[in-house]
Amino acid sequence: MSCELKIIDGSMLEGGGQILRIALTLSVIRKIPIRVIKIRSGRSKPGLMEQHLKGIELLRDLSNAKVKGASLGSTEVEFWPSDIIGGNHEARVKTAGSISLLLQAALPCSLFAKSHTTLRLHGGTNAEMAPQIDYTTEVFRPVLEKFGATFSFDLIRRGYFPKGGGEVIINVDPVAKLDSVNLTERGKITSIYGWSFVAGTLPIKMSHLMADSALHYLKRFCSSIQIERYKEDRNIAPDNCSGIILVAETDTGCILGGSALGKRGENAEETGKRAAMQLAKSIEEGACVDEHTQDQIIVFMALAQGVSSVKVGEITMHTKTAIFVSEELTNAKFEVVPKGSANMISCTP
Question: 241-250 and 189-199 as β-strands: parallel, antiparallel, unpaired?
Fold first, then answer.
């Protein structure tokens, strides 16, 4: 392990929690002690919020790390990792803070642990400003499997804004290495499918309105569209929420997603349209992964053995941020080359 602290400026680019998550993840995997400064300085309430604090504590436990400055509102943290130990770990966010974002930080670390890892995560399963857990399992996980890694998932309870209270159990087996990927040929859309749900006291009719609206906007891309419409079991999802998750598959094995949660004052048709338009954008750009998977795979490209190339749409700020941090904490070099309405991201580790 290097004894010299690597300083990461948390105000760069996206300026939020993502820089912290990726820096901590790579710190753990590469055994590089880091100091993250100006944490979330680009946000209206700078510094660590509870979900960021729980993420730090989870990675601390995973890697037997020494931590300094990890408290609510702190804008500077030092993190000194040791070995990634695997085993059973728990993180409990009292709010509807995203379980998917906790997993984004912990999953890559768990893949390089000395033994099997079980993560029991509490918080929001379907929350704004973060991937829904259904997106993580149905869109991101199949893409992760192209790198030669995966995880299993048990949903115990759903948690929605503002109460949270969701619970999932993630099981991860370690890998000897990550494979490089070559996702450069999008091919033709062969099927579109998805899930349109309501929970709590909301009427099932809303799920049909969201699904019918999404189908209306997507039928130009594919004749085979199946969107399941249902009401969540009150035992698993007692609180009110509505949302839709959409997936498109291609004949070259690409998987693209789009999703939306119902908002106060928004009709169900508009929710369905938002999810459909998100998916349509990726399809029209000719991308092999959508904008949300785009930034999540940067860390895996940096850690994989061999050169990876992925065709994406518009480069997001989250992706620029992920590339910046990955180049700071690994030997990987990224190159982005425009390809019409798309871009090719290549990574040489």
Answer: antiparallel
Q: Which helix (H) or strand (E) holds 322?
A: helix 317-329
Q: pTM score > 0.90 for this model?
A: yes
Q: Give the end of a domain, one of 130, 145, 176.
A: 176
Strands (E), the chain: 6-9, 34-37, 66-68, 77-80, 87-92, 117-123, 152-157, 166-172, 182-183, 189-199, 225-231, 241-250, 255-261, 308-312, 333-339, 342-348
**What is residue 39's three-state secondary structure?**
coil
Render pLDDT for 133-185 as a digit per residue (tens, 0 to 9): 999 999 999 999 999 999 999 999 999 998 899 999 999 999 999 999 999 99
Quote the Cα angle for 175-181-184, to 5°.
160
Domain that holds residue 55: 1-83
Residues 6+ apart with CB under 8 A from 264: none
Residues designated catalytic: 318
